[in-house]
Amino acid sequence: MTSRCVLPAEWAPQSAIMLTWPHPGSSRGKDITDTEPVFLELARAILRFENLIISCEHVIRLQELERELNAWAAAHELPGRVHTAPAPANDIWSRDHGPITILNEGQPTVLDFRFNAWGGKFPWEKDDALNRHLANFSLFGTAPVHSVDFVLEGGSIDSDGEGTLLATSESLLTSTRNASLDRGAIEQTLSETLGADRILWLNHGYLAGDNTDSHIDALARFCAPDHICYVTCREVADEHYSALAAMEEDLQNYRQRDGQPYKLTALPWPDPVFSEKGERLPATYASFQIINGAILLPVYDLPQDQEAIDIMSTLFPDREIIPINCLALLQQHGSLHSVTMQIPEGVTPV
């Protein structure tokens, strides 16, 4: 590697998971009746294994959550794991507006990249300032927080923890994010900030209803340094077939540092899910969150849910598989990984 820093893999030991709690003013979350139960289920699952960081724009609701979750944690002999801060937010997608934490010679540094709502698709100013609010409340402990003048969402990259990133060209190279930078300049920025000396670019693959310009975390994920799981569609008549078949070919052509091909595991293709307006939604089993000792796996009340659970059990035999019904998140065009952001070990909220 050309840099001493590295972006840890998601399976590396974690200190906490961050959630940006829904509130009625969220740009796509005006009715949070269905969304809050998903967040509460996520919160309780996370607390079983590690710290939980919650920010919420509504102070009264945040105080209620703090009491409720602290009581739950105490009842399960898990005190001291709930950490909260009032902070304005446009929306709930912590994966993309949350901090990205690197290890520099083993010491954590919290990077606050710019966020512009996937190229200006929605309001973003509150989300772009959120990490600084959390830092002011010492939720990143004593770890240094550095601002980076570069638009980057956490869902657009996936790390093997050894200097290799997975990314899609459609999201990272779009002109609505970093218009003045070409591919070479973006690769240089990722090398300097994240220690990435290899980027595996996916030039194909998309999900209908996805507002992120094909984030990698909905399509393909490292599950070990030599192993990638990915979304595939075997139904020729489906609109996704050609793009995902081309993406699969890209993955088959990738090589590890030693020249060996990656182990590849195809994830189930879920039946179509539609919004109330008849729009196809981006259902994907790739949107899982790895936490200490467990996998939080999105499910959608579909026949393919059990197959996804079984595959995850094979991929991560030493972790508990916890299915979370994410239909309510899907109605907002996102899923489980989109609302979570891991904070690596060494960043201890105060």
UniProtKB/TrEMBL annotation:
<dbReference type="Pfam" id="PF04371">
    <property type="entry name" value="PAD_porph"/>
</dbReference>
<dbReference type="InterPro" id="IPR007466">
    <property type="entry name" value="Peptidyl-Arg-deiminase_porph"/>
</dbReference>
<dbReference type="GO" id="GO:0047632">
    <property type="term" value="F:agmatine deiminase activity"/>
</dbReference>
<keyword id="KW-0378">Hydrolase</keyword>
<dbReference type="GO" id="GO:0004668">
    <property type="term" value="F:protein-arginine deiminase activity"/>
</dbReference>
<protein>
    <submittedName>
        <fullName>Agmatine deiminase family protein</fullName>
    </submittedName>
</protein>
<dbReference type="GO" id="GO:0009446">
    <property type="term" value="P:putrescine biosynthetic process"/>
</dbReference>
